[in-house]
Amino acid sequence: MIGVIVALAAAAIWVPTAQAAPTNAHEIHSVGRPAVVALTPGANPAPHASKTQGKPFLSANPAELAKARQRGPKSAPPPTTGAPTPPAGTSSTTAPATGLFNGLNQPGISVADEGYCCTPPDSTGAIGPNNYVEFVNTTIRVYDRNLNQVSQLDMATFVAAPAGHNVSDPQVQWDPRAGRWFYAAVAYTAHSNYLVFGWSKTSDPSNLSGSWCRFRALLGNQLPDYPKLGHDDNFVLFGANLYDDSTGNFVFSTAAIWALPKPAAGSTTCSAPGFTAFADATHPLLNADGTSAFTPVPANLSDASSLGYIVAGHSPLAPNPSDPTGPQTKVMLWHTALQGGTPRLFADGDLTVGSFDVPAAVLQPGGAPEIESLDARLTQAVAHADPDAGGAEAIWTQHTIDGPGGRSVLRWYEIIPAGVTVRQQGSLQSTTDFIWNGSISPSIAGNDAAIFYNRGGTS
User: Fold this and answer.
1) Do residues 310 and 346 touch, judged by C-beta distance below 8 A?
2) What ranges make up the beta strands (E) of 7-81?
3) Pairing between strand 192-200 and 180-189?
4) What region does 103 belong to: left with phi over 0, alpha with psi -120 to 50, or beta?
5) pLDDT of 281-340, one tens digit each?
6) CB–CB of 144/96 below 8 Å?
7) I need a surface site. Which of 88, 197, 204, 455 has the fewest CB within 10 A?
8) Closest to 157 (Cα-Cα) out of 139, 133, 180
9) Which residue, among 122, 128, 123, has the nearest Cα to 150 in the 3D structure?
10) Dihedrals phi, psi of 286, to nearest 5 degrees
């Protein structure tokens, strides 16, 4: 099913204040510029030939993940002392209310549409002034805002993946400031891994062959797993976890952040852009306390900001042997800025939140195979100025964590990056069911948000 928040396209009625950078940030220097190649759509002569299996789920530490799943039923404790108390009404134990907005209800891209193999499909989507764009691992489809199909194209053809490469983990966003659509994905095969990305030439995404610019950055043996996409006024930002496939196994190397200058306003050319890396296998990305960062998520900014923001939850799974295992109480924050004509990255610090640990897998009726609920990583972030916070930019983000009775719950946060503070946090949970696979986005007003999630269990 496709979900659309039409209200997000409305115009703001107030102007956000200028954003200040945190005062205690320290710089993380660039480690180089991976070569970027501009691509032509359809470069893969047989786009379906290599689509025989999905990419496996890659955690920070598979052995520790197995142990974490055996830690037994856990209850998420109250927020750590010093963290804000979750506001009233942020937990739900009643049956969800359901309804259709403006009667909009259409099936998404199905296996029959794809003619392809794999679950999960890694579905993602974004809405703009006139269109909704849906990506899955094998297909991209454009709809109008009434969810009538406008166009469709095979994903490997769209991103111009090299022959023999699978495409996975797609991301797409509408940027109202740039008036464009941006995308990212992974094109991979053994020892030949690419981050593929690009943008629409105009606000109209419907010509999937001719009206998009597309590029790839070769990362060799390093698979950029679980890429996440964000943007500010200056840059398109990417975060990912790098896994070394040189031994035939996927061994975690480091989390990574990249910054890409936005195309000039009104430009319809597709010249290869500069692409700055802030971590690699020999220069690992760290949290403020020196532990290994995992799954950095750039914020999707919906208003004017000269700064970009990236967040990551501390992993309970020890990405490297020197890291601690078990429940965590911190979320890491970084920001980017344009200084001297180049992108610069700054580590702002760790924020204290309520304790969290790896959630249990989701049970299904009749003993059907359990559903993967991930490993407590953050999965997306949206930023918008909050008038109740003095007009400061606020990042809304969430993850699935352990909860009472061994069930998973959805924990959310509102973070004020200028003060490196958690303004509020809360959770959605059920006394009978598992809550997981969430997303959160503030309304255009900026002082409230909507949360989407899956709910399931043995019944």
Assistant:
1) no
2) 26-28, 36-38
3) antiparallel
4) left
5) 999 999 999 999 999 999 999 999 999 999 999 999 999 999 999 999 999 999 999 999
6) no
7) 88
8) 139
9) 128
10) -120, 155
